[in-house]
Amino acid sequence: MQKFFTKSAFNQAVECPMRAYYYRNGKDYAYHYEGPDGIAEIGDQFGALACIYEGVPDENIIRRGGANPVEAQAKSIDDTLELLRKENVDIGEAAFSTDKYLVYVDILHKRGDELTIIEVKSKCISASKPLYRFDKKGKCSSDYLDKILDVTFQKYVIQQFIKTHSEFANLKVHAKLMMVNSEAVCDVDSLSTLLRIKFLEGGHREIECAPDIRKILKGKTRIDRIIDVDEISDKIIADEIPNIAEMFNGCFVDYVEKVADMYINNRKDYSLCHIGTDCFKCPFRKEADDDKLDGHIECFQNMCGVNIAGKSAITNVKDASKGLPTSLKKGAWLEQKKFFLTDIDEHEYVPAENATPEAFQKRTELSNNDLRYLHVHSVKTGSSEPTFLKEAAKAEMSKWTYPLHFIDFETYQGAVPLFRGNRPNEEIAYQFSHHIAYEDGTFKHAGEYISLEAGKFPNFEFVRKLKSQLDDDEGTIFRYDIHENNILNAIRIQLIDSNETDKEELIRFIECITHPTGSCKVPFEPGVRDMKDLKEIAQKYFYHPSMGSSNSIKQVMPAILHSDPFFHEKYGDDMDPYHNLPYLEEFAAGVNKDEFPADFDDSDVWNADKQINRGGISKLDYVLLQAGRFNKLHTEAIRKASRRYCELDTLSMVRIWEYFRISTK
To answer: Which of 87, 284, 345, 496 is the most core-located residue (most Cβ within 10 A)?
Structure first.
C-alpha cells in the first residue's frame, strides 16, 4: 500500500518531525494520551452537523469505511474526482492526492472554477473574538494556530493536486475554518442525540444522522462560526509571517517537502528537529508496563547523547519550565547539558540557611519555591520525610466552623449541546457527593445527587439538592481546586437567564458559598460561606516526596496517609482506594436484574472492562447515556460505579482533614 503524507502526519510534524515518524510506526512506538475520553467522537458529531449546515447532500459525503483500506482509499479519491467534474457541487470528506500527499477535506464547495475548503473543528470561539492578530513587527499570535496550520496544509496539497491534473488547472482554492460559536444558543431538543455515533469494525466510527434531521434543523439557530483564513494561509505558505516561518526552519514548503520525504520513506532524520522543554512532554513515550519503544528517549539519546530512561526530567519541577531556577531558564539547561532534577541546585530556590527543618517550621505557609526545593532535595537525597507546618496549619484550622462539609462535582462539557437552551461547551452538573466531618473526629457520607436520565437538564435540581444538604448549619465548606466554584458560577448565570420560580433563592445560595470568577458577567460579592480550597490548603502546609510536583488529590491523599503509622493501622490496605475501584463488570453483576433488566443489546457501546476512576463518567459515555444507548442494567451499573467514584473523592478530602486534625494535636 502506497504511503501518503497526510493531514494527521503533518499535525504531528508541526510539533516535531520525529513525531511524524513515531506516528507512522505506531505499532512499534508507545503513545501516551492524556486528554479526556470522547473528544474525537463529539468532534465527529459536529463534523456531521457541519455537512448539514453547509448543504452537503448525503450522497455526496464520501465514506471511508471498508475492510480493505487500499480499496477504500482509492474509491475515496475516485469518487472525489467524479464529483469534481461537476460545475457546482458540495462534497463531504473529499479526498485529494498527489504522488506523496493525501488529504481529506471536511467540506468542499465547488462553484465553477472556485474551490472553497472548510476545515471543521469542534473547538469553541466566541462570535467576536479574532482568530489571530498581527503585531507591529508582522508577527502573528493566535490561540488557534494549530487549526490555521491544518487548513493551510490542505490548501497547499490541493494546489499541488491542481498542478498535476490538467483538467482542473483553472481551479482556485480558498480556505475557511468552521468552529463552534460559544455564544450560540441551541434551540433544538436533544441536538446531540440526532447525531448517532456508530462504532464500526476495525476501530472505525461514523455518525448516523436522524432521518428527519435536515427538516428539524431548518430555520433553527446554527451553533457554528465560519472564518475566512485565505489571506493568512497564503502568507504562511509564502513565509511572510516571521514567527510562523521560524517554526518551519524558515520555509514552509521546504519543511513540508522534507518531512513528507522522511515520512514516506520511513526514515529517521534528526537534522530537522530541535530539542526543547516540550520534548520532555512528548506523547510518544511508554509507561512502566509497556513493551513498546520509547520515542522521546530515542530523541534525547540521538540528539544529545544522554539516556533519560527512568530518570526524573528537569521539567518535572512545579510549573514545569516556568519553575526552573534562573540559571537554567531560556535554554540555559540545554547549553549546560542539565536534563534531570538532580542537575538542579535546590539552593537556588531556598538558601541553605532557610532550608533547615527548624526554618521551615517558622514559615506561615510553603511557597512555590519551597515546594520546588523540597521536591528536588528529596530526589537528590532519597528522603521520604514529609514536611508539615504544624503551627501554621493549626492557625488555619482555628478559622473553620464545624461541622465541616466536603463536596465534589462531576460535570460534562461538549461542543454539541445536549439540551435546548444550552450553549456549546456549557457546563452540565449531573452529580455531587457530600461528606460531613464533626469536631470529635467522626464523619459520614451525608448525601449525594446523580442524574443520568436521558433528556433531563440536571443543573437546577442539582443546586436545589446541594442547597438542601448545606443549609442546615453554617459549617465551613471545602472543595478540591477551583472546579466547583466555576460550575456554580456558570449555573448562577443559567439561573439568571431562566424562568425558574425559585431562581432568586437558588442564586442567593450560590452567591453565599462562592466568589465570582474572573470572567463573571454579572458581578457579586464573595459569599460569607465561600468554599475553601482544600488543595490550596494542603499545598500551603504539607509536602511529601511521593507527591513529586503534583497536587492531585490522587497523589496528595495517599501521601498524607502514608506519613503517619496511625492511618495504616486504621485503614490497612485501603490507603489508596482509587486503585481498588471495581470494573464495570463487577458493578453490573451486583445490579438487581429484575428491577433493571438488560432490555436491549447494547454490546456496541458497553465496555465491561472499564473503570470509572479518572474524572468520573467519560464524555463519550455521558453522551451515550443521554442518547439512551445503554440498557437499563448497564445504565444502573454505570450509575453505581460513578457514585462510588465521586464518594471516594469526598472521602479522600475527609482523610486529608483527618491527617491535619490528628497531626496538629
So the answer is: 284
Reference 34, options 383, 291, 371, 281; nearest CA is: 281
Chain-centroid distance, C-alpha 450 = 23
User: In the structure grid, which three cell numbers stand for residue 283, read together?
Assistant: 506523547
Report if residue 84 sits inside a domain. Answer: yes
The answer, yes or no, to whether residue 39 has pLDDT greater than 90, is no
Residue scoring higher pLDDT (609 or 2): 609
The last residue of one of the domains, among 237, 263, 293, is 237
d(C-alpha 227, C-alpha 151), whole Å: 12
Q: For residue 599, is it within any domain?
A: yes
Show which of 204, 237, 270 is a domain's final residue.
Answer: 237
N-terminal to C-terminal alpha carbon distance within the chain = 71
User: Cβ atoms within 10 A of the Cβ of 466, count?
Assistant: 26
Contacts of 298 (CB under 8 A, 6+ apart): 18
Say how far apart CA 63 and CA 23 lie, in whole Å.
23
Name residues whose C-beta falls within 8 Å of residue 614's C-beta, 6 or more positions apart in sequence. Answer: none
The H-assigned helical ranges of 55-165 are 69-84, 145-164
Q: How far apart are CA 85 and CA 89, in angstroms?
A: 9
Q: Any bridge partners for residue 108, and if so which? A: 91, 117
CB 392 within 8 A of CB 663: no
- Counts for the chain of helices (H) and strands (E), in that order: 23, 17
Decide if 615 contacts 576 (C-beta within 8 A).
no
**Could you identify the residue written with the cell 458540495?**
90
Please list the residues that pair with 625 across neighbouring strands.
Answer: none
3-state SS class at 391: helix
What interhelical angle do 295-304 and 17-24 show, nearest 10?
Answer: 140
The secondary structure of 592-654 as a DSSP string is -TTTS---S--TTT--TT----SSSS-HHHHHHHHTT-S-HHHHHHHHHHHHHHHHHHHHHHH
Q: How far is CA 51 from CA 54, 105, 108, 197, 210, in A?
A: 5, 11, 10, 15, 14
Judge whether 209 lies within some domain.
yes
Q: Is residue 365 one of the residues assigned to a domain?
A: no
Which strands sit side by side in the sheet containing 428-437, from one edge to the other? 443-450, 428-437, 404-412, 477-479, 532-533
Asked if residues 635 and 617 have their Cβ atoms less than 8 Å apart, the reply is no
Q: What is the mean pLDDT of residues 149-177?
A: 97
- CA–CA gap between residue 487 and residue 415 (Å, rounded): 17
- The closest of 663, 37, 128, 618 to 393, measured between CA atoms, is 663
Per DSSP, what are the bridge partners of residue 178? 120, 226
How many angstroms separate the CA atoms of 260 and 524, rounded? 55
| Full-model pTM | 0.93
**How many Cα atoms within 13 Å fall on the side-chain side of residue 393?**
26
Cα-based distances in Å from 443 to 241, 652, 654: 61, 12, 8
> For 216-263, how does the pLDDT look when each residue is reduced to its tens digit (9 = 90+)?
999 999 999 999 999 999 999 999 999 999 999 999 999 999 999 999
Cell 496511625 belongs to which residue? 566
